[in-house]
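Table S2 (text version). Query chain:
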Amino acid sequence: MAKYAGWILVLLCLVAALAGCEQDRKTQAAPTPLPDLVAPLVRQADGSEVMQLPAHLPGLTMTTVEEVSLPGMLETSGKISLDDRHVAKIVSRVAGRVEAVSVLQWDNVRKGQPVLTLYSPDYMTGEAEYLQALATSKLNLGPGSADQQSLAASLVAAARRKLELLGLDADEIAALRAPSASTVLRAPIGGTVIDRQVIKGAQVNPGDVLFTVAVLDPIWITADIYEDDLARVHPGQALEAETPAFAGRTFQGVISRISPGFDPNTHTAQVRCQVRNPGLMLKPDMLARVRIFTAPGKALVVPQDALIFEVDAYYAFVEVAPGRVTRRKVTIASWNSEGPTRVLSGLSAGERVVKDESIQVNALWHQAHGESS
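Corresponding structure-token output:
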């Protein structure tokens, strides 16, 4: 038994140390007011309640919400995406079988380049009907009734329209000499094959997407712009972008369009930026840092120490009278670990807010309302 006594003592010490660490973590996360501090609520003339700060709260300082000048460059984050005006899908219009595949995923293709050969009886039927209608119309070119000629012309037009719906272009229709059950599908645009859904021998149905071709230069970056910065941006504005994958390499572009919609939760609107993509280095879904060259502006800022984060929102304690404060919800721009925090809503220039000991004041606020901090 004595053999294990030492180990038992070590385990007890470790448990006690872990319990002490946990207690320290709880104390840091949710400090409680000092027992001798009292911060009563005071009802205002308008019916609202504010908190009377203790006469002596160690370390308490106040700061003023300031309006500062913003530089002539607006920074934001964004995500790279395809320019959907230059994306095309090759879709099967018939039920059939893939006889041959001419390109692979990520290949670069030219407009009109063959990408796949598809077998389907629908092609043979459509081509036979067209050739028959064409032959009949030629027989009616001689003396005959106008009604017969008109009917023959209508049959040719209908058969030709059927071939067009099957995907044959004017040159292919003009080159028809005999019906065939196989046809070649071609790239509708020049670009890169970014998606391939078929292999040789695969069965396809009408509406199946076989390939997706996209132009990767230029490419889009979709970025978020805060509400009070919207007046500083407009289509055609120059910008540059960087990505973590190519640190130090900048990509040039312009603002292409600004979303008509607005997100009330984040106080942002989206802008789409057209960016040059030399070497096709930028890939869809990459993250990017965007710098937009713009006119200087104004912004409200407060020290980070003045803000309290609870649940899913930030709060600040605003002085409404000497020694009296109220807690107010504040919306901020994206969090920056250095320097002051930019305020989007909730505070006004010139207002005084609690800076140091804001956590202690928050605990007093909950205590005054009979809540757990």
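Notes on Table S2: The longest helix spans residues 2-29. The domain at 89-214 is CATH 2.40.50.100 (OB fold (Dihydrolipoamide Acetyltransferase, E2P)).
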